[in-house]
């Protein structure tokens, strides 16, 4: 169930659903998603669905990972990406094969530690991790040409907008848990009057909430 044939079938499905970036598809074809979920769920790792990873959290659906990654790379490859919501580490692992540097923030310590072990075992040396409330971003490494948020706030956190570099792009799901969530693409454009944040609404999505405070 974790064979190359099963992975190839997932990639075919992503193509059918409109993913076009061949680099993204190639990385997703080779990344062992079954190592990012509990062994008991590994037989479902190459289904195009979100799966539980413990602590009430999920590993995102492969289509959403592919779509968000493809959009983030649509203006060229940024030199670094800030991800908020490390979770299993799968999205960060995909990004790490496509961009030079990945910085990822997670509020739940056990998830962060598991992700760190996975990166070590897979030899992914260009991912830095931080145990923190990612609503505050990671100011020490700002500004970021690319920010990806993988949990949904009701409004875009101001700190993340502040840490977006001029010309940079953020992909973020926004909305309530009970209502509709929308994936937003936000670009920071510099005009004569100062900086402007241009928002484009993309797909309807369903993400776990972006919560404040950290958990040991
Ligand atoms: N990117 C993840 C992956 O590839 O497995 C999926 C992320 S899961 C849908 C959302 C993650 O965001 C959870 O692990 C959750 O604990 C984390 N999260 C929620 N609020 C957060 C916050 N304020 N700061 C950092 N992480 C947060």
Topology:
Layout (H helix, E strand, L loop, with lengths): L3 H13 L5 H9 L20 E4 L2 E3 L2 H11 L7 E5 L5 H7 L4 E6 L2 H14 L4 E5 L12 E6 L8 H5 L1 E12 L5 E11 L2 E12 L11
The structure holds S-adenosylmethionine (SAM).
S-adenosylmethionine binds next to strand 2, helix 4 and strand 4.
Describe the overall structure.
With 216 residues, the protein is α/β, with parallel strands linked by helices. The protein has one domain (50-205): Vaccinia Virus protein VP39 (Rossmann fold), CATH 3.40.50. 27% of the residues lie in helices and 30% in strands. It has 6 helices and 9 strands. The strands form 2 sheets. A 7-stranded mixed β-sheet has the order 5-4-3-6-7-8-9. Strands 1-2 form a two-stranded antiparallel sheet. A hairpin with a 5-residue loop joins strand 7 and strand 8 (181-191). The radius of gyration is 16 Å and the shape is globular. The mean pLDDT is 96. S-adenosylmethionine (SAM) binds next to strand 2, helix 4 and strand 4. Residues 57-60, 84-85, 87-88, 90-91, 105-108, 111, 133-135, 150-151, 207-208, 210-212 line the site of S-adenosylmethionine (SAM).
| Main structural class | alpha/beta
Helix content: 25-40%
Ligand catalogue:
S-adenosylmethionine
| Rg estimate, integer Å | 16 Å
Number of domains: 1
The CATH architecture assignment turns out to be 3-Layer(aba) Sandwich
Kindly report the CATH topology: Rossmann fold
Intertermini distance? 34 Å
Q: Average pLDDT across residues?
A: 96
Query: Given this structure, which CATH class is correct?
Result: Alpha Beta
Order of helices and strands: HHEEHEHEHEEHEEE
